[in-house]
Amino acid sequence: MSEIEPKRIIYCGVCSYPPEFCEFGISLTKCQQWLHSKHPEIYASLYPDIAPAGSSSSETAAASGDQPVSTLAAATSSLSIDQNNKIQQDLAKKQHREEIKQQKELAKKLSSKITIKRIERNKRKHIISISGLEVFNIDSKKLAKTFASKFATGASVTKNAEKMDEILVQGDVSDEAKLYIEGLLKEQGLENVKVEQVDDKKKIKKAAAAAAAAAGGSGDKGGK
Known about the structure:
The protein has helices spanning 28-38, 40-46, 57-64, 72-75, 81-111, 140-150, 174-187, 201-223; strands spanning 113-122, 125-131, 155-159, 165-170, 194-199. It is of the alpha+beta class. Helix 1 crosses helix 2 and helix 2 (40-46) packs across helix 3 (57-64).
């Protein structure tokens, strides 16, 4: 009686699961790239109509050949019940951890806010500073360039007192900037995030004090 050779099972070099289970993980694109590079014939059977990221459709077609399209059930039928159960349990744990991570990130975003501060430079000239964008994965440098073009003004990125990025835009465009940022948040499904507009109180106090001093000085002269 001849010995039965054990079946060789291939495991993904990215997520460590059989390629048939990669679609249930959180790194499918990287898994597909790895599989296409290391085992093009398996890739062709699992993803016959999908070109991996970074490759042309002609390369995928050449790799696919006449390989039949296999279903998940057929592809995993050779695995033992224990193997299937373990993989399913591990996948469930990974998905649960990812869901918790996403929930925490969402809670942080919903409890945060973006601040647009209106600062008076001299008399009728103003600038605005925008901070708090990093929580929402908004690229400050890219947004500064957008504002510079959109409002035909100067815009730059600098560090605030908390060592975080803030955008400085020349001109009193706080209302326009607020509407634009709210649009970006809406694209992320974050309509309820607050975009707060404030005036620089230090500047206001200085202006009020200067005005009061000027009024007092003129009163003294009038008395004399």
